[in-house]
Amino acid sequence: MAGPGEAAIRVQGLSKSFGPVRAVRAIGFDVSPGEIFGLVGPDGAGKTTTMRMLAAVLQPDAGEIVIDGVNVAAEPERAKLHLSYMPQRFGLYEDLTVSENIFFYAELFGVSRNDRMTRSQQLLGAAGLLPFRRRLAGQLSGGMKQKLGLVCALIHTPKVLLLDEPTTGVDPVSRRDFWAILYDLRESGVTIVLSTAYMDEAERCSRLALLHGGAIRYCDTPSRLKVSMPGALLAIPATDPRGVRDALTGKPGVLGILLMGDRVHVRVDDAARRIPELQRLLAERGITEASVEPTEPGIEDVFVALLGQGSGP
Amino acid sequence: MNLRRLLAMALKEALQIWRDPRSLAVALLMPLMQMAILGYGVSLDIKHVPLCIYDQENSQASRAVVERFVSSGWFSVGHVITRYSGIRRAMDRSECIAAIVIPANFSRTLAATGSAPVQAIFDATDVNTTNIALGYAQGVVAQENADISTQWDMSHDVQPSQAGQIELDPSVWFNETLDSRYFIIPGVVAVILALVGAQLTSLTISREWERGTMEQLISTPISALEVMLGKLIPYFAIGLVDAAFCLGVTIFWFGVPFRGDVATLFVTTALFNIVVLGIGYLISVRIRSQLGASQIALMVTMLPTTLLSGYTFPIDQMPAPIRALTYIVYPRYYVTILRAIFLKGSGLADLWGPVLGLCLYAAAIIWLASRAFRKQL
Is any Cβ of chain A less than 8 angstroms from the Cβ of B224? Predict the structure, then answer.
């Protein structure tokens, strides 16, 4: 049992290679009870490999994972009693109904009949799945499948919940349901680790680890990560974002440019000094009356700034 | 081991089989089809061997010999040949596989000496058939001989000769009508159960890998042993249903006499099922694609079972190294057991040898299978 102030999850020096590919390189972090801890990073950063090792389904090459006081490498089966893991790929049985899947996982974790009834009622209700109890899981929409995955993962009241990109390909309404359930869980003291490629989702985590090339580059709360972003952020609403980007790329003081749909985020070294300069540069390109205003960075801006990556063409 | 998890696994697997048309077809239709194909198709009895007659004499005596061949029922006399070359041509065209040549001086020689040669020619491209046809021909001639020598003795007014009158008195045990079906069909049942059982379980673990359900499953506290037993229970039930079905067809449709007791049959069949399912499961653990696993299962079971189990090719007649090899072909034990139960009415005590073989096999397979599956990606 994790005592007060003790970490629910402690990871030290965790490494895993697949042949010559070093997927995870000596990462370490602590997660406190009741936290929602986010692993953020581009594809191939090592998020899934890390999640799998946390879930004790993949043997690490080196390092130590202690979950709720149990050493995962030494006693994987004991750790699994209090864990719940939702893999990235839908892992339930498509040829079983919603209720049958829930029953199966409830039995595997030894949930009593009464607990199963009340919990599945409550969780299915929260997920909006009550009307679909008799439907085959394979006939659910993507969002409903993910919510069913969550219901099955939560049927035994785990202490630690591991979610690997749980909302990828999920519609906004289902994502809202999903997060409502996660917030409820946090209230009841469940520790959650999730990986995500969605920046708005990363922002909802209590702490984030920015994973890149198998290593953790930064690990902090979203607000402190934003503060740590070098430079200042300017937003330019634009009908032609690419034109704006082309006009400003490589100009003095411009540290990074990120296309954000109908606006462009430009990171500069000094906001007060660069705003007039940028407006002039845009006017030279025929983009007149462009408003260039300081803005609060989102986690995507921070992420790109810290990892030094562009958002692609 | 936790009984609840085991039963949950068994129930889940049963539901999946029930909802998967492919599994159901393999489980229930394949035995039906194989029983029909192998039960009817495989028969070592040869009736109506196509026969040519080249009767150079065409006398009453020679026609009596021909008549003897016709009335035996083993031969069907097709062509009447008038030249030696005709025999060769008929054989080339597969119009006959046996020919009888009666020489021109047949009745004269017979009358003078009491014996006369008749030539029999066989197309030995199919050695097995030839051997059997040769046996039939010898039987026919032996009967004719007996009649002739009696007649000869009488016409020469001597006491029936004691010497030279060898009466063939065949004594055939257990399969009195010498119907090869009685011998083969119990073997067919063993072959079918071996093939179908391994096919079914070969898919069970690979299906979880292929459909992506394994990762979540191994993140739960279920143990490897619970996974194995839970998955095998429904297939064990299917295996017993298939066995009951095939054995029922053997007894009630093909009319093979059942002289043993049901308890012995049940115990040995259950034991055989464990071995068969365990082998499919082992393959399934090793091969992560369903197609691959099912192909390997077919390869591993089909050839040894059909060639080395003794169900058509007698093990006694194999060369020593091959005969030694048959001891690892587990269906051989069950083939032996089934035949003995059916035709001899043997009990467990009589069958201790092959039953022990199956027990050892079952123990080894279960031990291997329980260790093979690891809860790791």
Answer: no
Please compute the mean of the pLDDT values over residues A83-112 and round it to a whole number. Answer: 93
Residue carrying the six token digits 């393959």: B283
Contact partners, residue B173, CB within 8 Å, separation at least 6: none
| Topology (CATH) of B49-155 | abc type-2 transporter like fold (3.40.1710)
Residue A118 above 70 pLDDT?
Answer: yes
Kind and range of the H or E run holding A143: helix A142-154
Q: Where in chain B is the domain with CATH 3.40.1710.10?
A: 49-155
Residue A310 belongs to some domain of the structure = no
- Please tell me the distance from the alpha carbon of residue A307 to that of residue A305, in angstroms, as a whole number: 6
Q: For residue B213, which residues of chain A lie inside 8 Å, CB to CB? A: 91-93
Which of residues A166, A193, A224 is at a domain's end? Answer: A224
Contact across the interface for A85 and B4, Cβ inside 8 Å: no
Q: Measure in Å the smallest separation between the Cα of B13 and chain A Cα atoms.
A: 10
Is residue A305 included in any domain, yes or no? no
Token pair 């299978």 in the structure block, residue: B369
Claim to verify: residue A115 and residue A240 sit in the same structural domain: no
Instruction: Tell me the per-residue pLDDT of B176-232, one tens digit each, with 9 for 90 and over.
Output: 555 677 778 888 899 899 988 998 899 899 999 999 899 999 999 999 999 999 999
Predicted confidence (pLDDT) per residue in B277-334, tens digit = 999 999 999 888 888 888 888 888 888 888 888 887 778 778 888 888 888 888 899 9
A239 and A218 within one domain: no
Beta sheet of A62-67, edge-to-edge order: A21-31, A9-18, A62-67, A70-71
C-alpha–C-alpha distance, residues A121 and A310, integer Å: 46
Among B2, B216, B218, B222, the strongest candidate for a mutation testing the A interface, having the largest count of A CBs within 10 A, is B216
Per-residue confidence (pLDDT) for residue B215, from 0 to 100: 92
Phi, psi angles (nearest 5°) of residue A63: 100, 175
Distance CA B270, CA B263 (A): 11
Whether B221 and A92 lie within 8 Å, measured CB to CB: no
- Give B-chain residues touching A96 at CB under 8 angstroms: 12, 15-16
CA of A101: which chain B residue's CA is closest?
B12
The predicted model scores a pTM of: 0.78
Residue B56: which pLDDT band, with cuts at 50, 70 and 90?
A: confident
> A30 and A175 in one domain?
yes
Say if residue A122 is in the same domain as residue A170: yes
Give per-residue pLDDT as tens, A37-57: 999 988 888 999 999 999 999
**In terms of C-beta density within 10 A (0-12 exposed, 13-18 middle, 19 or more buried), how is residue B112 classed?**
exposed
Compute the distance between CA of residue B131 and CA of residue B126 in angstroms, rounded to an integer.
9
| Total number of domains constituting chain A | 2
